[in-house]
Amino acid sequence: xSGRDTMVLGFRDPNGKPYVICTLISVAVMLAASVISLIxxxxxxxxxxxxxxxxxxxxxxxxxLVCAVVFVLxxxxxxxxxxxxxxxxxxxxxxxxxxxxxxxxxxxLFSITAFTSLAMVLFSHLIGEEITEDFISNxxxxxxxxxxxxxxxxxxxxxxxxxxxxxxxLICLAKGHPKCAKYLFGGFGMSRAALIFxxxxxxxxxxxxxxxxxxxxxxxxxxxxxxxxxxYIQYGIHASIVMHSSFDLxxxxxxxxxxxxxxxxxxxxxxxIVLTMRSLLxxxxxxxxxxxxxxxxxxxxxxxxxx
Length: 307
Description:
The chain has one domain. Mean pLDDT is 85; it is low at 288-297. The protein contains eleven helices and no strands. It has helices at residues 3-12, 17-48, 62-86, 94-100, 102-126, 141-174, 192-208, 217-235, 237-252, 262-285, 300-305. Helix 6 runs antiparallel to helix 7.
């Protein structure tokens, strides 16, 4: 079999090597954006953190510190989970274990988010309705980075934990199931109730951005909200926080160096197209069979019948 035939077969398999490589790149960029941003925020703090306590709407120091702690903790949990999965893994199972890790799922959806966001930007440009962000022009660079870092913890808490996790937890309690408190932090799996609250929270997520952005930001953030929410439901709030904040932080790199954020996001968009193909292939494998590739997620019927 030629190398070309092997590559084609790899693309036909949702867990084939081409998709593993694309996922690995996505995860590397997502984690690199997180770490680089955190290093900058720490190093620049002595000279620039004063902008957080001045101006018309100062956010202070305590709030960013809390967000930073939550962000770092979420990052550590994702990396720790990956290290635990890969430790002592037989060579032939490395790809499969890597692809099942929450950080890999977040990386896949990270690239798909880049793809959908870029598609919405291009669509908005074509119809003459640009996605404006005038409020950012009044902010200092350091303040922008802090705001982007805080976006993940803040918005995931409001739109995912409170709008998805809390209602599902209350339903769990109403049905008399034990240990419902853990549902607040996500990772409980898709269900009819979760899907309904995912849609409602995504609409709210889109509407929350209209105060500072133009109307065309709504479809962009609605789609992103669906992707962030899916990661929250399937893999936990720590995964959605890292995915969310790292995406926003990477996009903000352009404020420091032209193209520093745009170029990797374009690359991620290309990977997002490829990984969208993978997602479509996985959906096809569900029909007519019930079972998903990852046993931890259960079958489609089991997922739908959850509360």
